[in-house]
Amino acid sequence: MMTTVAAEYDHMELQQQYSSSNDTVNNRWDDEWDNENSSARLFERSRIKALADEREAVQKKTFTKWVNSHLSRVSCRITDLYMDLRDGRMLIKLLEVLSGERLPKPTKGRMRIHCLENVDKALQFLKEQRVHLENMGSHDIVDGNHRLTLGLIWTIILRFQIQDISVETEDNKEKRSAKDALLLWCQMKTAGYPNVNIHNFTTSWRDGMAFNALIHKHRPDLIDFDKLKKSNAHYNLQNAFNLAEHHLGLTKLLDPEDISVDHPDEKSVITYVVTYYHYFSKMKALKVEGKRIGKVLDNAIETEKMIEKYESLASDLLEWIEQTIIILNNRKFANSLVGVQQQLQAFNTYRTVEKPPKFTEKGNLEVLLFTIQSKMRANNQKVYMPREGKLISDINKAWERLEKAEHERELALRTELIRQEKLEQLARRFDRKAAMRETWLSENQRLVSQDNFGFDLQAVEAATKKHEAIETDIAAYEERVQAVVAVAKELEVEHYHDIKRIAARKDNVIRLWEYLLELLKARRQRLEMNLGLQRVFQEMLYIMDWMDEMKMLLLSQDYGKHLLGVEDLLQKHALVEADIAIQADRVKAVSTNANKYSVTDSGYKPCDPQVIQDRVAHLEFCYQELTQLAAERRARLEESRRLWKFFWEMAEEEGWIREKEQILSSEEHGKDLTGALRLLSQQRALEDEMSGRAGHLQHTIAEGQAMVQAGHFGAAKIQERIADLQAQWAALEQLAAVRKKRLEEALALHQFQADADDVDAWTLDALRIVSSGETGHDEFSTQALVRKHKDAAAEVASYRPVIDSLHEQAASLPKEKMESEEVRGRLAGIEERYKEVAELTKLRKQALQDALALYKMFSEADACEVWIDEKEQWLNSMEIPEKLEDLEVIQHRFESLEPEMNNQASRVAVVNQIARQLMHSGHPSEKDIKTQQDKLNNRWSQFRDLVDQKKESLNSALGVQNYHLDCNETKSWIKEKTKVIESTQELGNDLTGVMALQRKLTGMERDLAAIEDKLGDLRGEAQRLAEEHPDQAKAITGRLAEITAVWEEMKNTLKNREESLGEARKLQQFLRELDDFQSWLSRTQTAIASEDMPNTLAEAEKLMAQHEGIKNEIQNYEEDYQKMRDMGEMVTQGQTDAQYMFLRQRLQALDTGWNELHKMWENRQNLLSQSHAYQLFLRDTKQAEAFLNNQEYVLAHTEMPTTLESAEAAIKKQEDFMTTMDANEDKINSVVEAGRRLASDGNINAERIQERVASIDDRHKKNREAAVELLMRLKDNRDLQKFLQDCQELSLWINEKMLTAQDMTYDEARNLHSKWLKHQAFMAELQSNKEWLDKIQKDGMLLVSEKPETEAVVKEKLSALHSMWEDLESTTQTKAQCLFDANKAELFTQSCADLDKWLGGLEGQIQSDDYGKDLTSVNILLKKQQMLENQVEVRQREVVELQSQVKALGQEVKDTDEVDGRRQVVERKFQELLEPLRRRRNFLVASREVHQFNRDVEDEILWVQERMAVATSTDHGHNLQTVQLLIKKNQTLQKEIQGHQPRIDDILERSQSLLRDESSNGDGIRQRLDDLQRLWRQLMEEAERRHGRLKEAHKAQQYYFDAAEAEAWMSEQELYMMSEEKAKDEQSAVTMLKKHQIVEQAVEDYAETVHQLSKTSRGLVADGHPESERISMRQSQVDKLYAGLKDLSEERRGKLDERLRLFQLNREVDDLEQWIAEREVVAGSHELGQDYEHVTVRTRHSTNTNTSWYEHKHATVRTRHGTNTS
Q1: pLDDT digits (tens, 9 = 90+) for 712-721
Q2: Which among 1476, 1492, 1481, 1484 is positioned nearest to 1418, based on CA atoms?
């Protein structure tokens, strides 16, 4: 153990030394580089670097050969140590060869991930071998890191080659390890050799003597050591290496060149020396083993026989022991008590007879082995140890196992014996219990087979209770049956030998038990059928009793004495019919239930089916009879009501007819048209009223006739009334027809006279207009007359229908009026005058049109001729000039002539058209018209020919002159450019000459291209003109030849000048580009310096886009600027000439302009951004102001409605408007906030923005306040309109009732009683509507208190209503008194009879004991009860009224005691029925509360059960979304439970009051309450527990979600890190490095997220979350992924840095080469100076050039060296 620890310590020390050596060199290199720049330091550093590279190369070669020496065992080889170990496969094979162990199989594939995995397997194996790898990862080997790869191989060499080396000294037996031990071994082996002094593993081996000494020490036959010389180191090394390779088989790891250096590599030397150590150590061990084997062979034969004997005996004994153990371990015992007893006796025989001899044999074996071992020890032989399995200890162990098996066999036999005894006892107990169960089951089967249920409901219910007791006993007996079955199963499990008999008896007991249960179930079914049938029979009895009561009511002969009485009886009968209809379902249900028992599928019938069918048939017959009686009584009541209603309606119709007869008897017909119209409208209104009344009258008569035909008992009276009324109606219709005819005749005559007067007046006016003879004196006046006449003609034509209608009116007059002289004379005069007017109209129209056309034609013709004369005079006097300027003037005049000719052509066409129309119509001046037309057309044709001739001549002359002009200009242009080129010949090739040349040749190339294009155009123009002008063709082509010659001459001059420029061309190109760039810079600055500000949003966006385009253009010129700047510095560097100084100033100005351009762009960008934001604000402001304007308009134009419907509509409209305001409020607020933000940010328009914001905000607030105020006023107005509408409705109702109250037509005695009854009903209606007035009074006072401004209107309306109501009441009382006074005695008698009869019916209804069997029936009974109570209130007023009637009769009747007695009897009976009525209502209310409570409890239980399934659900979601959804659902459930708690509390409170009521079923209520409370508590607990489970699931799913997001993010970053993209230039390298720094910082920042995830996972695991294991695994994956990501980030950072340094080096080299080339041009110049001063300047420039060249070169070398070092 101490050796291993020491080796590990030594390994760590060496590895740290190896790492620190390189680090020290690098650090020292960096420090010195930073602090010093001297050439000596630079040389020292270069030397150190070279040594390090040499040492690394030696190590690589040595380690490569060492690896191949071991890989050759598995036929493998590597060529490049760094590259071939990257995939990890060779590394795994090397470790397998060195360790002799199997490593995990390498992963297939060549991708990076596969290489990393293989290398990681190898490194993991080293860690398992307790090899410490510091600062080394799999990615280092995969990336081919030289230093770490060498370090890994060295670590492997230390572990598997050097670690086990140890040397023992003779003095103190001290053990040394690793390098010290190997050094000591070398010193011991080479002690005494001359020239060999080994004290390290570096310089001590340089001369090769040490290697030869080691070989000679062990193989002196190979080397003659005395011949070796220390000075011949190379020979010594080569000799030792070759001998070791050829004779010892040691791989030649080193070459002589690797050792014969100043400082050989220590690790390489140690690696090679270790191979010597292992080879010679193995050779020594082989010799020692040979000697020992020789000594042992002499004594081996002597002990061989004894060993064979021992092994034979031991094998036999062990075989017997194993066979016996197998027999003893057999646990297949006999399955009976006797068989187990016999096996126990056989076991005792084995222990006493068979086992003792074998024990003696075991002792003899021990003696024999002791003898063999003693003999071998005496002979110094290796002590014989029997092979594994035949040792004495093995035999003893086998014997112990034998005794253990023996003991276990004995225990097993005794246990089995006890078990068999217990099974026998258990079988006897089973037989005893089975016999008891079989006897009990047989007895109970006989008991339940008997059906003695009884024949009535009480007996069957008693039998049911008895049967339930039997079921309880049998259910309790099931445990005893199961006990028998359990005993049988126990015997079966224990494999009892007689189990078949036990199972058969058990099956018999189970069969008897199941048969008993079947009998019990069948008896229960039969019993339930009997019980249900008896309940149906009981229900039938109840229904029959109820139907008997109803028959007595339906057989009554009271059909009413007047209309009100009949209505009362019909209401009562409707209640009876409703009860009968309700009972229909009850009868149907009872019949259905009864029929079920008459037909059964099981075959059992609880009763004779015929009995059931008879009862059902009797029930249905009784119900049908009851229904028929109800229909008959309703028919008789309807007939009585029809009779009384007929009499009442006939009386009303007679009164109306008498009233209308007086109106129709008037003789007034009207004095004029207005009076006749008024009377006729009144007549039509009366006829409409009669037509409406006629339908009602005919309907009434039809009803009476129908009653007569049906044989009604009042047929005679009905027939008499019908005939009388029909006669009155016929007389009324005749009067109406006569009056209507007279009125219509008078109206027609008056209308005819009025219309005739109007026609006469119009005819006189029209005749005066159309008889005029004026036609006008010119075109304008004639047109005015035509317009006037057109209007007059239209009016005449439109008046014909008026005259026709007048004739129709005359025809419709009565015959005597129509044939009168007055009417005929007026019609004839009107017709004659109209015809005259029409004829004059036609004649005047024709005259005006002819005059107008003639004037128009002459006017146009004269104008055209004047224009033609003017233009002909100009054309005839015009001559074609020769000068170009004159030609252009004439051409311009021709261009303006063409549009004038177009206008005149249209005027000539108009004249021709008018002339043709006039001649076609036969105008009187037709000849003059024709002459004028021909004259104008001839003049126009001549003029057009003259214009065309002049225009052609002008164009021809103009083309030739333009050609000559272009030729002259082009020739001058070419000569000018030629002179410019020739003037540059005197300029030199220096900067001054180049700049002068640049100025002169500016724009030359562009001009040359333009000249060439111009020549092409002239060639085409010359060809065309030569064809058109043959006489001038020679002159035209000659001019073209002159220009071509001049052009060729200029091109030759330019070509010669370009050839003479030479190297100055580059400088010229630079100056040209500089001019172009400065020109662009100036233009761009001008564009940016624009002060244009946008006035609209579109302009702002356009300016922003333009400004952004300028930015892109600046970026595109960035590269040109840098090149220009670099080229300028190169040209002006070291130059002192004035032109160079001027060029340097231009470059400085260029830098200044470039920087100012960026600043100007930024300032302009800021200004435009603010303007754009301001325009956006203005756009939003306009939209907001539009909203506000709309709101203000709506608020200002809303009026208060005057009706309730319009008031509610206005409120709804206002609410919708305010909703729209709310919707727009966010937009307005956003505008305000945006404006304030712009103002706070310092926008240039901040003041205007603040003003607009303040205005919008103020208007918005005002609109909001106005809208709220308007809504309040509208609601107040609605309340007022509602009050006014209620007042209006009540006023209309009072007026309507006032008409009824004022009807005093009760003189006839035959309808006096009916009127009294109607008036009583009217008074009751009046009293009931008194609440209406009280409600309006209350609403009015409330309205006044809330809105004082309505007080005047409200009080006025209320006072008017009270006044009208008081008038109505007083009128009603007066009418009642009058009716009562007219027939007091008869009214009193009839009233008492009606009340007495009604009280008898009420008494029968309230005696019923039916209080409902469910909630529905109870509600129906309560509705009936309410109807009875309402009737009682009405009848109570009638009873009170009887007292006043008695007092009134007392003044006229003598026997007042008898009258008062009848009143008291009625009053007493009425008071006696009030208390039973109240009691019945209380009973019904109590019954409803009980049924309602039961219904509520059932509903709540169902509600809880429905929610229980949700609360107990085990679905907790599989992702974060589903868990959140389930949590929301559970929260909703909890809130629902909390909201439902008051409902449960209400039920519990109501239950307390029901439990205090002794009449209710207290036990049942308590049971239901307990169930409800139990379920409620369970629901709340389950909901809370589910909430906790869901919270845990939510924590886990949230963690999984966050972990998944983290893994996804890290995977994305890992893909980026593994990207093989490489930079193409320095700029892209810098960009990629910056981008990577951002990503790297993001990875560092993400550590907090990973830490938070880890903290969350630890918290969940610490809390004992159910998914703790999965969470831990997930967190480990996240941690591992993050660690890998950081490694990839560092690796990519290194690659990017290397790439960037490479590009920087290349750039510096390129710059240096360019600088040298530029200086070669200057140095090679042959210009030596023109004078002394010039020579001095050039000498100074050359010196500066050399100095700058040296500095540039030195900087480049430093840069290159720094890059190589990195």
Answers
A1: 767 777 788 7
A2: 1484
